[in-house]
Amino acid sequence: MEKLRRLWRGRTMTFGVPLLLYLIGGSFGLREFAQIRYDVHKLHGKVDPALKEKLKQNPVTLESEYEKLDKSNLDNWENIRGPNLWEDSRTVQKQRREALRLKTE
């Protein structure tokens, strides 16, 4: 009886067994939640036939996008500062337009 009590109060039973139960139980729980996610995706993942036809009519390929990018001029660009969180975007845009107007004059 004393050995059983000592085993029960040991570090293995106090920390090790609950840790293993959480790990094993968590893996089974995650598997179930992931399965639910995939089942819902399978049900709602169907594409509308009209949208599918529209995508077939206008195929976008990697080569066509590369040609668009190749035609654009990437050497002459200007870094435009956006507004900070505390600034009003309209005010910053107005200041930017004013600076461009003064620059062109």
- Radius of gyration computed on alpha carbons: 31 Å
Uncertain runs are none
Going by helix content, strand content and strand pairing, the class is: mainly alpha
Question: Helix count?
Answer: 5
SSE succession: HHHHH
Principal-axis shape equals elongated
The proportion of strand residues reads under 5%
- How many beta-strand runs? 0
Family: Belongs to the COX16 family.
Pfam family, one: COX16
GO cellular component, one term: mitochondrial inner membrane
Keywords: Membrane, Mitochondrion, Mitochondrion inner membrane, Transmembrane, Transmembrane helix
Protein model, in words:
The protein is mainly alpha-helical and 105 residues long. The protein is 72% helix and 0% strand. The chain is built from five helices and no strands. The model has no long low-confidence stretch (mean pLDDT 84). It is found in: Mitochondrion inner membrane. It comes from Zonotrichia albicollis. This is Cytochrome c oxidase assembly protein COX16 homolog, mitochondrial.
Short description:
The protein has 105 residues and is mainly alpha-helical.
